[in-house]
Amino acid sequence: MDPDLCSAKGCQEPAVWQLLWNNPKVHTPERRKTWLACEQHRESLSSFLGSRSFLKDVVPHEPVG
Ligand SMILES: [Zn+2]
Prior knowledge:
17% of the residues are buried. The protein has a 3-stranded antiparallel β-sheet with strand order 2-1-3, covered by helices on one side. The protein is an alpha+beta fold. The mean pLDDT is 94. Helices cover 15% and strands 25% of the residues. Zinc ion binds next to loops.
C-alpha cells in the first residue's frame, strides 16, 4: 500500500505531519483543511500558512493500515 505523500510541490516523501488550517475568507470557522508534510517540508509549509494566519494546528500523521 502506498503511503500518503507530502503536499509540497514535487515532493515524493511520505507524510509524517498534518497541518490543519482554515481560510476565514472561504471556510466556516470549524472547517479544517489538511496539508500533509514530510519532516523536511513541515517548516516551510507551516510558515506559509502561518504568515497568512491560516494555520490552526500541526499534528503527527498516523498512516492508515
Ligand atoms: Zn516534503
